Amino acid sequence: MHDDQEEAPPRRLNARDTDVFDLGDLTFYPGPGPYLDRRALVFDLALTGRPEPLPVARYVEAVAVVYPHLTGATFPDHAHLFAALCSEVSKLDIGLELHRWRIHPRGRFARVATQTLDRRTQHQVIYLVWDWLEAITLGEPFDRAGRMAKLQESFNRSPYGGPTTYAILRAAERRGIPTVWLRDEGLMQYGYGRRQVRGVSTTFSTDSQLDSGFTTRKDDCKAFLDRLGLPVPKGEVVTSLAGALEVAREIGWPVAVKPLAGHKGIGVTAGVRDATELAGAFARAGGEGEAVIVETSLAGSDFRLLCVNGRFVAALERRPPWVEGDGASTVEQLIERENATPARADSPTSPMGKIITDEAMIACIEQQGYTRQSIPAAGAVVRLRKVANLSAGGVSIDVTPSVHVDNQILAQEVARHFRLTCLGIDVIAPDLARSWKEGGLGIIEINAAPGVFMHVHPAQGEGVDVPGAILDTWFGPNRPARIPILAFNTLEPEAIKEIVDLVLSRFPHWNIGAVCPAGVFINRSARPMHRDYLANVENLLRDPGIDLLLVAYDGDTLELDGMAHQGHDMVVLDKPTPIESILARDLRPGGTLIQLTGQDVLIRRQGLVEEFTLDPEDRFGRVFLREVALIVGGMG
Question: Interior CA angle at 297 toward 295 and 298, to 5°?
Fold first, then answer.
């Protein structure tokens, strides 16, 4: 090429003719990898050269309209801007704690690593940022709000999108408890090996399935609580409207009507005052042929008492949603305005859900003399439901500090009869600050898998760290969530056998899992090996009988797949390549590093450093076996 000839632009991978940016080679790392020390989505980013990009400051100015904290931010190049914007969008406008990203220059392109929770959602994040920056370049409008709504929907459908699950995951991360989504089982795993527990939302592998199932039999549960001498409302199970009317007349109006097998307040109607209202309530609870509970409708507020591991930890008042008139807007418009508030984003981090318009809501407002098109007077309060169903827009108010000690003991008395980690006890009472022994309080039902995010982030009042209390059931200062993990860049079966024999001499009942390119082992026994190398590591970490893990990660595995877990208690590097050296990066505090470079040995142990030259007649394996012996000697 002559000096006066223009250099040809780089070959485009996925860019359109008008695109400034080009993006490709998206790679998902389920754990720490060569480009980020945690779960990440990595991709290559380049400038096409034609057309030319705007100055970085122009893009910053445009995106700062949405993210004001970026106003005046400076970035060394477009790749850093792109990565930082991916990090901002990853939070999905709901405060997800995804902050990590890194840039790795690669000549004409940059390798970008972005912290990831849900792989599919993060993929969409990256393409949203790409399209947004291209629209800024062309001066075209961009429907960021619409695209963000789709991202939020994607995340909500993911294993991490449930408010309760996400709250527990956040608490686990802050406590250094490793978590793994077990896709085939549809479970979340907390901890590794023998020290793990698995669960869905607030149902865990340590719970009694019999007790959990019993709580769904609401009529039997109520009879059981009554036999314990605890306060429950009178009522019966019926399967016909005629039967419901008979029970209502027997126990007296008003009554509450709910499906026998319901949950989340779906199909529940309280304060039913006559046969006409009963007909509608019975239909909403299931109708003819379905098992429906008809019971005394107690006067008072709706409360949830929560016990964790048999201990009272939190209490919440739940109020039905309402709107306040302004003298100009219809009920429907007031609801739309309320639903548009950030507090009602209906996300894993928002305190309230959307107000749902359904038959029960329409009936409720009509009983107050309104329709959806009515214009309430300024200051007029329109109640939208009789039942405080949070999933339909109810309001949560923390009342934990004011709960009378007798009511705390009452909750614990219920919980002690169930081998369940979490138990929600729903009561109606005038005020939880008054003892139940004074009368007026009734236990409506108990729930074996209660949601807890409403306690963490109520609409009103201080939150309670319920996820922390849940995790404290199994993990704490002397109850670690991890098993010891020893990582190697090269590991042969003979070395595995030597380590196994050494460990078993100290702990004869232990099971030592090992994965290396030559196979999978538990103690000296070879086990079936999956074609996916990381799957073998994950399988051993999932095994509730494993006490210690030995795992080899060579350079190819690290580059292509990364690691299946976070952190090592010991790292052994035998003449490592640069990429294999990242194993040392993830050494846990207080861990031991042993590295052989040429014939020089480096040992770093609890802040102390030792260096020496390996004797020609000695072998490196004997060196790290001595260190393994020291680690094993300190285990209990």
Answer: 125
SS3 string, 392-420, reads HCCEEEECHHHCCHHHHHHHHHHHCCCCC
Q: Two tokens at 4? A: 């006066």
Q: What percent of the chain has pLDDT over 70?
A: 98
pLDDT tens-digit readout, 357-410? 998 899 899 999 999 999 999 999 999 988 788 888 999 999 999 999 999 999
| Both structure tokens of 520 | 């999978």
Asked whether 112 and 141 are in contact (CB, 8 A), the reply is no
297 near 254, Cβ under 8 Å? yes
Indicate the residue type of 61. Answer: E
Q: Is 418's pLDDT higher than 90?
A: yes
DSSP secondary structure of 117-153: SSHHHHHHHHHHHHHHHHHHHHT----HHHHHHHHHH
Other residues' Cβ atoms within 10 Å of the Cβ of residue 623 = 18
pLDDT per position as a tens digit, 283-329:
989 999 998 999 888 889 999 999 999 999 999 999 999 999 999 99
Structure tokens at 562: 């990364």
Structure tokens that stand for 104 in this block: 């790795």
Query: Please, which pLDDT band fits residue 4 given cuts at 50, 70 and 90?
Result: very low
Dist CA 625 CA 636 (whole Å): 19
* In 158-287, alpha helices (H): 163-174, 209-215, 218-227, 241-251, 275-284
> Residue 516 corresponds to which tokens in the numbers above?
């290396």
Cβ contact 315:432 at 8 Å = yes
CA–CA dist 193, 481 (Å, integer): 9
User: For residue 230, how many C-alpha atoms fall within 13 Å in the half-sphere facing its CB?
Assistant: 23
What six digits make up the tokens of 435?
């003892």
Looking at the chain, the whole-number percentage of residues with pLDDT higher than 90 is: 78
Answer whether 122's CB lies under 8 Å from 114's CB: yes
Q: Which class for 270: exposed (0-12), middle (13-18), buried (19 or more C-beta within 10 A)?
A: buried
CA distance 157 to 127: 19
- Containing 255, the helix (H) or strand (E) segment is strand 255-259
* Length of the chain, in residues: 636
Q: How many CB atoms lie within 10 A of CB 378?
A: 11
Quick check: helix, strand or coil at residue 343?
helix
pLDDT tens-digit readout, 82-115: 999 999 999 998 888 899 999 999 888 999 999 9
Please answer whether residues 170 and 459 qualify as being in contact, where contact means their C-beta atoms are separated by less than 8 angstroms.
no
Q: Which DSSP category does 193 fall into?
A: G
Taking each continuous run of H as one helix and of E as one strand, the counts in the chain are: 19, 28
Q: Which of 453, 378, 380, 463 is nearest to 422 (CA)?
A: 453
Cβ atoms < 10 Å from Cβ of 276: 9
Of 632 and 187, the structure prediction assigns the larger pLDDT to 187
| Kind of pairing between the strands at 395-398 and 311-319 | antiparallel
- Helix residue ranges, H only, 139-217: 144-157, 163-174, 209-215
